[in-house]
Write a structure and sequence with these properties.
This protein is mainly β and 68 residues long. Helices cover 0% and strands 56% of the residues. It has no helices and five strands. The protein is globular. The protein has one domain: Nucleic acid-binding proteins (OB fold (Dihydrolipoamide Acetyltransferase, E2P)), CATH 2.40.50.140. The protein has a five-stranded mixed beta barrel with strand order 1-2-3-5-4. A hairpin with a 5-residue loop joins strand 2 and strand 3 (26-30).
Length: 68
Amino acid sequence: MQTGTVKFFNESKGYGFIVDDESNRDIFVHITGLNGATIREKDRVQYELVDGKKGLNAVKVKKVESVM
């Protein structure tokens, strides 16, 4: 699984972007890829990547707890 940080997520429009930890690239995330989870800006998440119509999409997104 990939990890990253939510750059932004617009709940009313149902999409946003995650900054990937390894590549530092913006990865598109749609509400259908959240599996019922709720994400907000700056949340740490795990996800899988799939090819979408316009590039890579995050799916099976879930929040991860920060380890202090």
